[in-house]
Structure formats: structure tokens, C-alpha cells
Amino acid sequence: MQHYGLMYTQQVYFTNDASMQIGGLRDKLNRSNLTDVSFMIVNERDAISRAMYWELKRKAPPGVPVYQQGPLQDDVWEALDGDKDDFLIYDRCGLLTFHIVLPYSFLHKVYVEAAIRATYLKNICNCTGFHALAIWQKLQLFYQGILGNGDKRTDSWPLVYSPVPISSIFLCYLLIIWLGPKLMKNRQPVNLKPILIVYNFAMVCLSAYMFYEFTASSWLAKYSLLCQPVDYSDSPQATRMARVCWWFYFSKVIELSDTIFFILRKKNSQLTFLHVYHHTTMIFNWWAGVKYVAGGQSFLIGLINSLVHVVMYLYYGLAAFGPSMTKYLWWKRYLTSLQLLQFFIVTIHTTYNLFADCDFPDSMNMAVFAYSLSLIALFSNFYYKSYLTKTKTKET
């Protein structure tokens, strides 16, 4: 019996006798009288281990999360002598029940799948004081799962490893939206014309660069437009795709500046629910994208959106010159149509993948599908009120 704080563990060694391994594990779990087992792979953080992680994640029963060793768990890694392919079994109270030690590179064997499917336990953890502690432990495990389950290539990149930095930016953004108009109430609008011109054309350049990188990376890697799993390897092509995904994510953080400019110019009418919702949700969506699926079929979203933003920021850049450019900006309404078109394309693409046999997380597909529908609804409402309603009014 080994002790790690409030966790306890029994160490189980597998030999090459599959039947004995499965039966022994089942007997030990039955005698323990526990429930809701979860698994955490304790392994090296390389490409082979990542492939094993996804294999176990695919084979685990419904409701059984699988985690990979996280960078902040070095002390546990050393304590468990992690020089083999290991994984841990936790009970529903967050207690480490078994430390399974496998022979080298045996995580993909059939008997491991059978052992996972054989785990069923019954304890409900009904001690009140301990249950309160267990909830905290489960929250810790959940947070560690968020940290440890990510793409190890991107974990060291800015604003990726933990959700805390991007959440802090989000809270500061909300504070600015709430406090900014109050501070500007008795002040004159700030003249930001030179800044807006530079900013918008800089965003045109950044968007064009990202569009090129998404196109080149997907083309060189021979990406499929219908189904493209994520390549978690450290190959130059896979790393290049992951890098442009990060730049796309970071561009969404930069785009929060749009709101600040509205406030400083006292354009509070543009601080709509659509504007705030779109800007805030994009930073979290793409944090998750870069954290867990930096590449794969998510590239299509970045590619299309980058192209749309080239056109969008070109419009804003020209508009920043003032009334003299108004006559050249007759195509504003078509910009909204272009934005709607991208959401329809993404929705159709995601819908296909939800029903196709594609090795890309369905949870991500569902999130993108729901998010795209929400944007279609909001942008359609904006288009109707901004253009169709005005057209009817003029005709009347």
C-alpha cells in the first residue's frame, strides 16, 4: 500500500498471461467495492504515448475519462517510478485506488481493453465530511484533466496551458465594457483615426498571413476537406499547422481591441450583444482548439475566417479615413452576407463529420455545430434589422 496525501493505491503488475491479468484486476476491483472508475495514463509525453492515450480514450467505456500525465505532475511521476507504460485508476471520491504497471509499450494490447471494460464498482462515498473533501478532490482532478489532456506541443506556448490567463483577459474585458462607457460619459470622443488606420491594415496583413499559412500547411500535409484527424506529431508540417492555429487564436485576443476603440470613440451603440458574444466566445473556443485539437479539420474554420477578416478589416481600414471614403464602401451589406456564408459552410462541414466515421472528437464537432448555429441566428437578425427592415421602410 502506497500513500500520496489523502490518496491510497495498490500496485498491480501485469505479466503476459492475459486471462490472469484480467481476472486478477476484476477480483481486486470487486473486493474494493468502489464505483465510477476513471483512468489516467501516467506516461512519457511523446508522440507514441500520445497515440496510446487516444487509443485508451477510444476503448474506455462511456463516462470513463482518460487523462495523460501533465507537466505539473513530475512529483507523482517520480514517486510511481514511471519508466514503464502505466496508468492509474481513481474511484468516484477522487482516491487513487490502483496503480497499474504494464510491460513496456503494452497499452495497446487487447487484454488492456478487456481489463478496462471489466471494471465495475459499487461504493457511493456517503460519508458527509469525506464527501465534501471528495468534491474538492474531484474539482482538482477535473482541473488537472484540463491541464494534462492538452496537446503537449502547444502547452508551452503563450495563453495555452491553463485557462486562467485567458479567463483573466475575459474578466478584464467585461470590466472595461462595464466601466469604460461610464468613464467616457462626460468626456469627448478620442480621435483615433491614425491608430485605427494602422490597426485595421495591420489586421488585414495578419489575416492574409494566416490564410496563407492555413492554405499552405493543409496543402503540403494533403489535408482532406471532409475528414482530417489531428496530427499530434512533431513533424515540421504538423507543427506549422499548430503554429498558425495559435496565431489565429492570438488574433482573437487582439480583436478585443475593437471594443476598446468603440468605447474610446463613444460608439456605444455598437457594443451590442452580438459584438460582445462573438468576441468573447471566440477566444475560449480557440483556446480549446489550440489546447486540444491544434490542426485537423478545425483548420477549415481558421482558413475561411481569415479570408473573411481580410475583407472585413479592409473595409474598416478604408472607413477609418472618414466620409471621403463612404462612396467606395457601398458593399458593406455584402460583408455581412459573406460572414453568414462562412457560418453556413462551417455548419454543413461539421454536420457531415458528426455522422461520418471520422477520427476527430465529436465533442468538438458538437461545440462548433452549436456555436455556428448561434452565430447564424445572431448575424441573420443583424442583417434583417440593418438592411431588410430599412429597405421596407424606404419603400413605404
TrEMBL record:
<feature type="domain" description="Selenoprotein P N-terminal">
    <location>
        <begin position="20"/>
        <end position="128"/>
    </location>
</feature>
<dbReference type="InterPro" id="IPR007671">
    <property type="entry name" value="Selenoprotein-P_N"/>
</dbReference>
<comment type="similarity">
    <text>Belongs to the ELO family.</text>
</comment>
<keyword id="KW-0812">Transmembrane</keyword>
<feature type="transmembrane region" description="Helical">
    <location>
        <begin position="192"/>
        <end position="212"/>
    </location>
</feature>
<dbReference type="GO" id="GO:0042761">
    <property type="term" value="P:very long-chain fatty acid biosynthetic process"/>
</dbReference>
<dbReference type="InterPro" id="IPR002076">
    <property type="entry name" value="ELO_fam"/>
</dbReference>
<dbReference type="GO" id="GO:0009922">
    <property type="term" value="F:fatty acid elongase activity"/>
</dbReference>
<feature type="transmembrane region" description="Helical">
    <location>
        <begin position="159"/>
        <end position="180"/>
    </location>
</feature>
<dbReference type="InterPro" id="IPR030457">
    <property type="entry name" value="ELO_CS"/>
</dbReference>
<dbReference type="GO" id="GO:0034625">
    <property type="term" value="P:fatty acid elongation, monounsaturated fatty acid"/>
</dbReference>
<feature type="transmembrane region" description="Helical">
    <location>
        <begin position="276"/>
        <end position="294"/>
    </location>
</feature>
<dbReference type="GO" id="GO:0005789">
    <property type="term" value="C:endoplasmic reticulum membrane"/>
</dbReference>
<feature type="transmembrane region" description="Helical">
    <location>
        <begin position="300"/>
        <end position="322"/>
    </location>
</feature>
<keyword id="KW-0275">Fatty acid biosynthesis</keyword>
<dbReference type="GO" id="GO:0019367">
    <property type="term" value="P:fatty acid elongation, saturated fatty acid"/>
</dbReference>
<keyword id="KW-0808">Transferase</keyword>
<keyword id="KW-0472">Membrane</keyword>
<dbReference type="GO" id="GO:0030148">
    <property type="term" value="P:sphingolipid biosynthetic process"/>
</dbReference>
<feature type="transmembrane region" description="Helical">
    <location>
        <begin position="364"/>
        <end position="384"/>
    </location>
</feature>
<keyword id="KW-0444">Lipid biosynthesis</keyword>
<dbReference type="Pfam" id="PF04592">
    <property type="entry name" value="SelP_N"/>
</dbReference>
<keyword id="KW-0276">Fatty acid metabolism</keyword>
<keyword id="KW-0443">Lipid metabolism</keyword>
<protein>
    <recommendedName>
        <fullName>Elongation of very long chain fatty acids protein</fullName>
        <ecNumber>2.3.1.199</ecNumber>
    </recommendedName>
</protein>
<dbReference type="Pfam" id="PF01151">
    <property type="entry name" value="ELO"/>
</dbReference>
<keyword id="KW-1133">Transmembrane helix</keyword>
<feature type="transmembrane region" description="Helical">
    <location>
        <begin position="334"/>
        <end position="352"/>
    </location>
</feature>
<dbReference type="GO" id="GO:0034626">
    <property type="term" value="P:fatty acid elongation, polyunsaturated fatty acid"/>
</dbReference>
